[in-house]
Amino acid sequence: MALYAIGDLHLSLGPADKPMDVFGGRWEGYVDKLRENLRVIGPEDTTVLLGDLSWAMSLEDAAEDFAFMNAIPGRKIILKGNHDYWWTTLKAFDRFCAEHGFSDFHVLNNSCFFYGELALCGTRGWFYDEQKAGSHDEKIFRRELGRLERSLQLAGEKEKYCFLHYPPRYRGYVCPEILALFETYGVTRCYYGHLHADSIRLALEGPYRGTEYRLVSADHVDFQFVAEPDVTSFVARHGKAFQFRRLF
Predict the structure, then answer these.
(1) Alpha carbon 111 to chain centroid distance?
(2) Which residues pair with 46 in a beta bridge?
(3) Are strands 105-107 and 245-246 parallel, antiparallel or unpaired?
(4) What pLDDT does 243 receive?
(5) What pLDDT is recorded for position 225?
(6) Which residues of the chain have pLDDT under 50?
(7) Per residue in 33-76, pLDDT tens?
(8) How far is CA 58 from CA 10, 48, 62, 71, 248, in A?
(9) Is 110 in contact with 154 (CB distance < 8 Å)?
(10) For position 240, what pLDDT does the model report?
């Protein structure tokens, strides 16, 4: 049994027709890389998908993308990213999965899931770059904080891993409200996505105020699945995190 995570698949296998291959570099052939690397995941495993999963504009248009994700063996826990325009409601998503025969998808939204003695918590989060662009919405921000706190509360006394789409901290920026929740509820690890290409250099990874931070956006981790029973020793040896990596 293993726990994996990855963010920002940006699939475009249906009508959206926005393949990331056009950006070149690591994105060239990214779907084939993901398909090949799925082989390390087994039916007893859990994979957390940290948002920006599909470029589709509706659930029906996302069917081929979710068919690809459905091929990931085992339990799949998903959360929303800023480009998941297909999302409407949890009820609609559950109905969509049932109609298409997609199994074992679970949405991390006002909820918490368990992996052994670990509590898997999280929400989309919020990005203060939105505020710089004049589009910061205090109501949405407070809603995200509420969802995160509810998720952490549901974890009880279990060790808490937090999964966000947006980074709660990077060079030149912190979200003090989210970091305060991490301290209050004792979050030991935080995994996040959203950062790509040149912005990856802004990522802050490693320990900070009692929480270990890791960026797992797909291009950052080179679309590789790595099985490693001891995450801490793996990072110490290799100096970086990997995509669809085994977390525990």
Answers:
(1) 15
(2) 3, 75
(3) unpaired
(4) 41
(5) 56
(6) 226-243
(7) 999 988 889 999 999 999 999 999 999 999 999 999 999 999 99
(8) 14, 22, 6, 20, 34
(9) no
(10) 39
Q: Are 26 and 223 in contact (CB under 8 A)?
A: yes
pLDDT score, position 131: 54
For every residue of the chain, which 3-state class applies, written as one string? CCEEEEECCCECCCCCCCCHHHHCHHHCCHHHHHHHHHHHCCCCCEEEECCCCECCCCCHHHHHHHHHHHCCCCEEEECCCCCCCCCCCHHHHHHHHHHHCCCCEEECCCCCEEECCEEEEEECCCCCHHHHCCCCCHHHHHHHHHHHHHHHHHCCCCEEEEEECCCCEECCEECHHHHHHHHHHCEEEEEECCCCHHHHHHECCEEECCEEEEECECCCCCCCCCCCCCHHHHHHHHCCCCCCEECC
Task: Give the per-residue pLDDT at 137.
Answer: 79
Residues shown for the chain: 248
Q: Find out whether 181 and 149 touch, Cβ atoms under 8 Å.
A: yes
Taking the C-alpha atoms of residue 100 and residue 98, their distance in angstroms, rounded to an integer, is 5
Q: Which residues pair with 190 in a beta bridge?
A: 162, 213
